[in-house]
Amino acid sequence: MRSKIVELEAFALDDEGRGIVRDEGLTVFVDNLLPNEKGKIKLDFAYGKLKEARLLQRLTSSKDRVKPLCPYYSKCGGCNLMHLNYEAQLEYKRMKVQNLLHKFAKIDFEVSKTIGMENPYHFRNKIQVPVKNIKGKIETGFYEINTHNLVPNSNCLIEDNRARHIIEEFKKTCEEFKLEAYNEDTRRGVFRHIIIKTSRYYQQIMVVFVTAIDEIKGKQNFLKAFLKRCPEVTTVVQNINKRKTNVILGEKERILFGSGKIKDRIFDLDFYISSKSFYQTNPIQVEKLYKTAIDLAALKGDETVLDAYSGTGTIGLCASRHAKNVTLVEVVEAACKNGIENSAINNIENAEFVIDDCTKYLVKHKDNQKFDVVFMDPPRKGSTNEFLTALIENSPKKIVYISCNPVTLARDLSILKDKYEIEEVIPVDMFPHTSHVETVVGLYLKK
């Protein structure tokens, strides 16, 4: 291996928030280096190719650099932009979307200012942490960057404040009953993860114990002691995952206490949340995200709407109050069942859930069912060529695309742009202090 040390200045941030520098024509990405900052950087080469770039010393500081409030920031891989002030984070996300649209879709469009938070801390309503045995004690926390080394964390600054007390009392109860964490090497032990879901509106809390075994020794007494310490918990679920895998949840689960679900509210609608159902993790920003999407749809009340990739129906059901009828299509049966339940508790009668693959559904009905407006919120991998082709043939007047990945968003817009005009591109910051950004795009049919 060959190494060299160079002094270089970053001129931009990449998609993952790393500083971009150039050395003799080579583009290099460096953690914790902001634009206009110069650093002493060690470059390691193997077989003629760059293997690693590491910042040894920062020589200058950007006006946008701040000291991260989190004491675990240098080790935990959760928040990678906490050293950048929040206004600069929002501008970084705006430019990230704009640059990726240009790079992958050849679209030069002035992206709107990112919709941010007034207080970008303690917003996350879903907390899932691994459980480990460290020096004879049960610990929880986050994995160190690119490792499975647990960093114990007693105060995560993006979690709902209520979660920390529950986690600490869980650890004390485990110690009291001599219940150990699961060991990946020996495949012995009980607890793999603890998941906490909180309701902001109704103040309800769900705790999910992910275990490697079916029966917890002294389960009833353990549960009674835990609930005595945490009376704010309204339901407890045990999820059993015996597989040797990094996937957190297993297939089998049982309700240990309460109803097995909690309820939260978006706008004036209630939504049930189960242990496995998807629900936006930032309840403060979710109304801003959905309001942005519904505003771009410009619904007048007489439209036929399709909500593709609908999940549990949060977007489509929120839009149903402004439309004639909404068809919600989702391939995951459990999500559809949750959506039907959510529709019922809100007395929504103009929404129909369909269990089907979105692409197959639209191809199947492209000739006999026309939509005025289509909401689409695909997974990170984006949509499919077949879906987009069928969508173009269906020719809705409006498309509102909600994306969690601007790379696949740009790819899909490159297909839609010949027939659809972009009205507005609006990033929404659902995950402060990270490089992740949600984007809402409004498109209208060209005449």
From TrEMBL:
Enzyme class label: transferase
Amino-acid positions noted as binding S-adenosyl-L-methionine in the UniProt annotation, renumbered to this chain: 280, 309, 330, 377
EC id: 2.1.1.190
Active site (UniProt): 404 (nucleophile), 404
InterPro entries to which the protein is assigned, alphabetical: MeTrfase_TrmA_AS (IPR030390), MeTrfase_TrmA_CS (IPR030391), NA-bd_OB-fold (IPR012340), SAM-dependent_MTases_sf (IPR029063), U5_MeTrfase_fam (IPR010280)
Keyword line: 4Fe-4S, Iron, Iron-sulfur, Metal-binding, Methyltransferase, S-adenosyl-L-methionine, Transferase
GO molecular function: 4 iron, 4 sulfur cluster binding; rRNA (uridine-C5-)-methyltransferase activity
One matching Pfam family: tRNA_U5-meth_tr
GO biological process, alphabetically ordered: rRNA base methylation
Highest taxon of source: Bacteria
Family indicated by similarity: Belongs to the class I-like SAM-binding methyltransferase superfamily. RNA M5U methyltransferase family.
Protein name (record): 23S rRNA (Uracil(1939)-C(5))-methyltransferase RlmD
Organism encoding this protein: Candidatus Scatoplasma merdavium
